[in-house]
Amino acid sequence: MKGSAVPYLTFYGHGKEAADFYAKVFELEQRNIQKYGDADFPSPPEAADYLLHCHLQKGEFQIMLADSVDKQPESRRHGLSLTVQCENEEEAQRIYDGLRAEGEVLMELQEMFWGAKFGKVRDKFGFVWDLNCEKEE
Q1: Beta bridge partners of 32
Q2: Bridge partners, residue 30, by sequence
Q3: DSSP letter, residue 46
Q4: For the purposes of burial, counting CB atoms within 10 Å of the CB of 29, is it exposed (0-12), middle (13-18) or buried (19 or more)?
Q5: CA separation, residue 21 to residues 16, 26, 52, 112, 137 (Å)
Q6: Which parts of 79-135 fold into alpha helices (H)?
Q7: 86 and which of 56, 73, 92, 102 could share a cystine (Cβ 3.0–4.6 Å)?
């Protein structure tokens, strides 16, 4: 395989809000944004402002996302968390604080037995993020 896995997150009409949120929290650049209404892609008229594709990036860290025109499932997302290896404790704290705003703390950001600072947050869109920061030596 070449490179790393890039998460592609699906939303149901909240893609633009999510793109703005993640760009702010992770300090990412919005590199490519395309709406359903701007593309020759079959979709209902009410989805014209939905995101067909969005690519956010800073260095090697990337997130992609889109809105689905399907009905949103009623169950919460589960079985997957997205791990972010933070550069330092300040970055870990900043991201943790941003994700927990309107979200849910699953594990406080704290010192762990494996020699790192770690925290787990479910963001306001239902995605779970594991933040890990190796100890600075």
Answers
A1: 55
A2: 56
A3: G
A4: exposed
A5: 9, 9, 17, 28, 32
A6: 89-100
A7: 92
